[in-house]
Amino acid sequence: MLVRYDLERAGETLTRQSLRGRVASLWRYREVLPVTDDAVVTTLGEGWTALFHACRLGERLDMSRLYLKDESLNPTGSFKARGMTAAVSMARELGVERLAVPSAGNAAGALAAYAAKAGMEAHIYMPRDAPPVNIVECRQYGAEVVLVDGFINDCGRIIGEKKEREGWFEVSTLKEPYRIEGKKTMAYELAEQMDWTLPDVLLYPTGGGTGLIGMWKAFDEMEELGWIDSRRPRMISVQAEGCAPIVEAFEAGADAAEAVTRPATVAAGLRVPVAIGDFMILRIVRESGGCAVSVSDAEILADVREIGATEGIFVAPESAACLAALRRLLEQGAVGRDERVVLMVTGSGLKYPHLWSQSP
Length: 360
Prior knowledge:
By secondary structure, the chain is of the alpha/beta class. The chain folds into two domains: 51-78 and 178-356, Rossmann fold, CATH 3.40.50.1100; 80-170, Rossmann fold (3-Layer(aba) Sandwich), CATH 3.40.50. It has 14 helices and ten strands. The protein has helices spanning 7-10, 55-61, 80-93, 106-118, 132-140, 152-166, 179-183, 185-193, 210-225, 245-252, 278-287, 297-311, 317-332, 353-356, and strands spanning 51-53, 66-70, 98-102, 121-127, 144-148, 169-170, 201-205, 234-240, 291-295, 341-345. Strands 1-2-10-7-8-9 form a six-stranded mixed beta sheet, with helices on both faces. It has a four-stranded parallel beta sheet with strand order 5-4-3-6, with helices on both faces. α5 links the parallel β4 (121-127) and β5 (144-148). α3 (80-93) runs parallel beside α4. The radius of gyration is 19 Å and the shape is globular. It starts with 6 loop residues before the first helix and ends with a helix. The mean pLDDT is 96.
């Protein structure tokens, strides 16, 4: 399910000019977010993250128009905060008291934080080998954390079996329509920060893919509002070689992905055996003229350091995968060095100390 709006009515108060004096959070786009009662909005100041012109990194790649959208600046250190502020606020409006989510890490921390802010229960199921910081984070927010011997889809299966009996409302990826609404605001911000002209290419690390789907939805909404034209960025879905169901489906010309039986990557957020919105991700990538690319863990770890050493941003491994993918696309000629390119930094490397403790 996707939320739809009366955009003609929304446009009466939501204009490009009206944004100038609004709050510096994603709630500046209030008319295209689902909550109707301001009293239930549960916010920790998420959104309106910085868009950096990556000059030094761009020099190394012979690119003058390379940008980083830094979502690590969100509360709880990742873009997942965007989705959870919308989902938890709507849950409050609907009278929900108990929330549950399967997560590889960052979504769990975000749900735990926003549920705590709202005074709601959070029941979180995570793979036992999820990043330790995420496990600690959830417990410090007062959530119930259950560690599962398996992957994120196994966690989702357990919640599915228990939620009716326990009275939980499940807020997992695309099983409710509100997380995507918070995440779509990344596209609204990109357009506003780029003076209403979209980038030529946008690289996005893809696990569940709600951010990519949400941004595509936002582009359509902004066009209907009259803010942008019909041109879209080429959307690049980036995955890890050890878990690349979207890449495999894209290369095979398939409309849906096959589940990866033994997903393995240092990028926990990319270790999603199959995305529930796989068909939507594949459609968006193809409609935009983009592609799907997988990269190795060695490339990912090397590019965490490359981004840090050139731009002073300590990115999560999922985010570094986008730089590795960009290198490959530049070599292939699929992306021009003169094009305006945005890499989505979806989270902070500070969440992954277990990866860096052995790093030279």
